[in-house]
Amino acid sequence: MTPTPTPEATAAPTSGVVVNPSPTPPADTQVVNEDSLKNGKDGKVQIDVAAGKTAVRLPLQAAQILGTNDLVFKMGDLLVTIPSQLLSTMPSLASGIDGVGAQILLELNPLAQSAAKAIVDGINKDSAHISSLSDVFEFRLSVLMKDGTRIVIKQFDEPITISFKIKGQFNKDLIGIYYLSDNGGLEYVGGQLNGDVITAQVTHFSKYAVLEIDKSFKDVPATYWAFKAIQSLAAKQIVSGVTTSEFDPKSNVSRAEFTALLVRALGLKAEGQVLFTDIRSDAWYASYVATATKLGIVSGRSNNSFAPNASITREEMAVMAIRALEVKSGKKLEPVAVSTAFTDASSISKWAEAYVKTAADLGLLQGRENKRFAPKAWMTRAESAQVIYTLLSK
Questions:
Q1: Are 257 and 318 within 8 A, CB to CB?
Q2: What is the pLDDT of residues 308-365, one digit of tens each?
Q3: Contacts 24+ apart (CB under 8 A), 22-31
């Protein structure tokens, strides 16, 4: 399950300047005046983008007018919510005499059907079937100077929220909002469902769309007990196969691999330095372990050793799963009244007992044959996928 770095995932976007040869606003730009930004309700000000418009210009000091309200743009079935805190940083990009007359420019450009189809068809599919369930939108946020120069904001300190209405029938386990790179790469960015509306937060602008991805593995048939979990997590790029066609569900999972799975599943940013002596700073899992350790999801097998390549035991998995769920929910979990009984409960380590009990009672994990938990047994790739899949539903 070692993640394969992709150009879109490893190349961090940076701010840049794009010169627009014409300072005249295009005909498809809607101008928002100050009065329109004063009608806040429930912490938001909504701007309805008129039909035929694909860009919006607003005052550089929009954040000052909005106060604590966020700014929501509604364009047909698309919603884009920009936090006031992000807007408040934009005037500094146009300071000085050259900034006089500058404005904020938001572009919401739906690609033509032929262009959108070409992009989706050009995605590196790795044997997956990919269907588009929305228009492909290209977004851009800029400071537009009076002379037409654009200072393009390519990385956001505060995330922008985008919501699409899904077109057609869909499988909720296989859909998400994806970033589509120009080189055919694909990056899952999230997908909270509310009926037929799906929402995610993004930290940079480019091309985005709602996609349904059906990825299958020849060693995980539809009748396999963990098929649904593996299929769903593969679509969300949380798990991957050992090859493009094989998942190898019965092989063991290392402590580093399961740590990375949890961090990716929770949508956490993998960053920081590890302090364990047996993890090199350039190891692919180093930042995942750093993040998980900082949040208390995982600890070392000693003060200095993490044992990243050691297979993870089922009782270790239970501890990490509950700690991850606590991070996800933001609260400490207490064991419920009814407890699942395992015939080998006495062999569970004392430090893991409460976690195993809670995880079993919450349905996060199941025992093996003859009502045994098998705490010291190695966790398989299929079991790890099932635990992550269940955790995400909590």
A1: no
A2: 999 999 999 999 999 999 999 999 887 655 566 889 989 999 999 999 999 988 888 8
A3: 22/148, 23/146, 23/147, 23/148, 24/148, 25/55, 25/57, 26/55, 28/52, 28/53, 28/54, 28/55, 29/53, 29/54, 29/55, 29/56, 29/57, 29/105, 30/55, 30/56, 30/57, 31/56, 31/57, 31/58
